[in-house]
Amino acid sequence: MDIKYVNVGFDPLLAGIAQCQYDVAISAMTITEERQEKMLFSDPYFAAGQVVTVRADNSDISGKDALVGKTVGAQIGTTGAIIIDDMEGATLKTYDDIGLAYQDLINGQIDAVVADNPMALEYVNKNSSKLKTAGEVFTEEYYGIAICKSNTELQAKINAGLKAVKEEGLIEELIQKWL
Q1: Is 80 within the bounds of a domain?
Q2: What φ, ψ does residue 133 adopt, rounded to 5°?
Q3: pLDDT of residue 27
Q4: How many domains does the chain have?
Q5: Whether residue 69 is found in the same domain as residue 119
Q6: CB 138, CB 130: distance < 8 Å
Q7: Residues in the chain with pLDDT values less than 50
Q8: Phi and psi torsions of 42, nearest 5°
Q9: How far, in Å, CA of 127 to CA of 118, rounded?
Q10: By C-alpha distance, which of 160, 166, 116 is closest to 138?
């Protein structure tokens, strides 16, 4: 296949794939029922979930249930943003880039960030004196490759490729290397 890479923000990526502006999107995207109404997905390739991150000196947020009355950052359009937006008593602050949410958290401008656990752990590991996770992963989600809804042929090709790399153990190697 001839591939042209286009780097866009997460929210425009979702809209673009739903409108078939893009053929495929891969960006730590969880498979949800709502998204499946607008786009096709590959078979899942990684199990993820949402986790709360707080400043290392925080002692009053112990997990998701302690976010009431707090200002919580999440990347716009993500399942983390949806969860916080639906949470009564928590105030959602959205960001185009999750890195900006973590920067605001470090700077004390928000109380917590909710994001996929691999992303959260990356930021915690890079900023271990400033950040920590609070509580356990509180959702069960799976990453998939999003595909324009009308392109079932491409979906079949992608699933065949995923199956091959899973059978070769390449997915596991990549998870160990990058996550």
Answers
A1: yes
A2: -85, 155
A3: 85
A4: 2
A5: yes
A6: no
A7: none
A8: -75, 175
A9: 14
A10: 116
